[in-house]
Amino acid sequence: MSDTRTDTATLLTLTFVVSFCSFAYEFVYSELLTVMYGGTVTQYVITVGLYFFSLGIGAALSDDLDGATLGGNFFRTEVLLAAAAPAGFLLIVGLNSVRIPQAVPAELVWTVARLPVVVVGFLSGFELPLLTRMFDELDDDGSATPSLLRDAGTRIHDFVVAAIGTLWTVERTEGRRSGLSVILAMDYVGGLAGAVVYARVLYPGLGLIPTIFVLALLNGVAALVFVAHFGDWSWWPLGGDASSASPAPSASAAPDGNATASARADRSLSAARVSKTLLVVCLLLTATYAGVVAKHDVADERLSQLYLEQQIENEYSPGAMRATVTSQETTAYQHVIRYDRTWTGTGPNPYFDGRTEQCLRLGAAVQLCESWADSYHRGLVDVPMSLVEPGPETKVLVVGGGDWIAIDHLREYGVTVDHVDLDGEFMRDAKTDPFFRRWHDDAYEYDRLNTTVADGYRYLQETNETYDLVLLDIPGATDDDLLTLYSTEFYRSVRTHLSEDGVAVTWGYSPDAYPEHHKAFVNTVGAAGFTRELSYWVREDLDDDGETERVEQFYVLAPGERPRLTGDGATEYVRAREEHYGSVEWHAVPHYRGVRENSIFHPNYDILVDT
Hints:
Helices cover 49% and strands 15% of the residues. It has 611 residues and is of the alpha/beta class. β1, α9 and β2 form a beta-alpha-beta unit. The longest helix is centred in the N-terminal third of the chain and has 34 residues. The protein folds into two domains: 220 residues, Growth Hormone, Chain: A, CATH 1.20.1250; 238 residues, Rossmann fold, CATH 3.40.50. It has an eight-stranded mixed beta sheet with strand order 9-8-7-10-11-13-12-14. One of its GO terms (biological process) is polyamine biosynthetic process. This is Spermidine synthase. Belongs to the spermidine/spermine synthase family. InterPro entries: PABS, SAM-dependent_MTases_sf.
């Protein structure tokens, strides 16, 4: 067997790998919980807190593990982690895919969804103490640590001591560092590497599903490397010898002062006895994960497609609609999902039975469906254009609207348009995509259009322009990454950039379906200085029965009095529906007592909705 220094280098490498995996697992869970339940800050904070709590519990209980079988316990821990981490991932996905009876308390679902975080943290808590004790037995005289690592550690230590000595009283100590300090250093380096590689390589390059299997594969490989190097293979049919499996020098070959240390190493590391069943499990898991990683594109597409289809169908009454995901891609800012939805014949309106239409989702929110794509943009553009003059002197700002459809509607009025959207990749693809071209008719070529790829809030902070009309064609408040676009600061910037008679328009959630969101939204725009609101629904005859149905609700916001929609400047669209818009009146923006507005620095999470 290899010499003690090789054994120590192997332990240090394994420390780096298992720490890399442990930290990255928690980032995967944090992001997954954010995708499933929303609230990036909330999910990351709770996940990290639960992870370190369970990590501490595992470390505290590690002393109760049998010291005579440290190697066996470490191998067992790695196999359990390799099995538990992907299983926990699938558990979280499953909880968000099935219909959970309303009788089940939400707190129970919340708890179960976070059990994988606790399990992985608890098992990871065993790793560091086990590795430290094994390292101490191998490195009892300090000579086993590779000289390069020892010298580098000494230089770093001396530099840090000199730095902290400027503020604290320090005492320099001679001699080697303890096994704990060496293992801890490698553990922290592995944790940092896990964070950086996850954020810069794994998540953006592979996505969540392949990443969890890459990490589990690393855990499985780490377990196999450990047991191959340190294991007791005396049962192996090709021949094995427990004594030959000892990584430490024999007592007779060791210096007199190290005989006891070598004996301890023989008892602990060579006690990494290989359970045949556990070894088979580890080999099967590792082989399975290797196959998934090798075909990660297929696995990611198929698993995410199954989840998304189930999630979409769950938004409707059981059996009412069937969803088929046709394509999906992830830009730097959002997950873009195309799907066909087919009404199966059990819905409330028989006209829709058997109809299939194409829809688009951005993240968790439905963005566009064929049946209401035109009516939505009529409500966003053609209704509020009744409040401003058409022509090139009128300046309009569109925040969002990366599909260019709102621009096409504005082109009909000959106004000057400034357009700002964060996702340049999505905007570029929408230009040539046949689905969008049906609606925008190459509006990006409009000669009075100025498009800027930027964050809407930052754009308003930097521009000096004023606008007669501001259209907020932004995603729904389904994720706290969007809290800025629903904040007092953002709406205040919009108000500041309105002309003397200018108005701002946004679509809105129904106050009946989302009362908490509505109250927070209203108080937020009120705190931003908007004193008057005009609420209306866009209506269309969707089922050709001669009666119009309410499709989408919109709000026009203003810091003072404004004319009615059906005045002299009413658009053709509004005049044709005067029976609906003639009764729409301006009202004072209400204020709900006890409801805090949403601010960037003091967010009110009630403004987020659970779709």
